[in-house]
Amino acid sequence: MQVLPKRFIEPREDERSSVPSPGDPQNGTIGGGVRLCSGLLWSAFAIAVYVLSTGPVIRLEQTGTLPNGTGETIYAPLWAAAPEHTPQGAILDWYIFRLWKVYFPPLK
């Protein structure tokens, strides 16, 4: 069995100071709590963008810019989570039909 010299196992003195320790604010590393909070904020932002993009997507679908059925496909989980006769559904209806003035012709 070959034994490596000590210089290959341990870093030299000048290299030890450049190795950052986890969570050390002087080295600019971020702790786990800040990283978790940042992840939660990005997740909330992504959900807000998903919900708020319903109006423009349906409007573009009605003008013919997007193919028919795009909104139904993309927002199927949202329609399932916010049925029409619930507070969430009422807010979503207000956002789509009142604010974006999306109009669906009556079914025959």
Describe this protein with a few key phrases:
108 residues, mainly alpha, 7 helices
Structural account:
By secondary structure, the chain is mainly α. It has a domain at 55-101. The chain contains 7 helices and no strands. The protein is elongated and about 80 Å long. The mean pLDDT is 79.
Mean pLDDT: 79
Using DSSP, what is the number of strands?
0
Q: List unreliable stretches of 5+ residues.
A: none
Number of helices: 7
What is the helix fraction of residues, given as a range? 55-70%
Shape: elongated
The proportion of strand residues reads under 5%
Q: What summary fits the major beta sheet?
A: none
Q: In whole angstroms, how far apart are the ends?
A: 85 Å
- Write the H/E string, N to C: HHHHHHH
Helix-strand category: mainly alpha
Any idea what the radius of gyration is?
A: 27 Å
List the topology elements:
Elements lengths: L5 H4 L3 H4 L15 H21 L1 H10 L6 H5 L1 H6 L5 H13 L9
Short description:
The chain has 108 residues and is mostly helical. Helix content is 58%, strand content 0%.
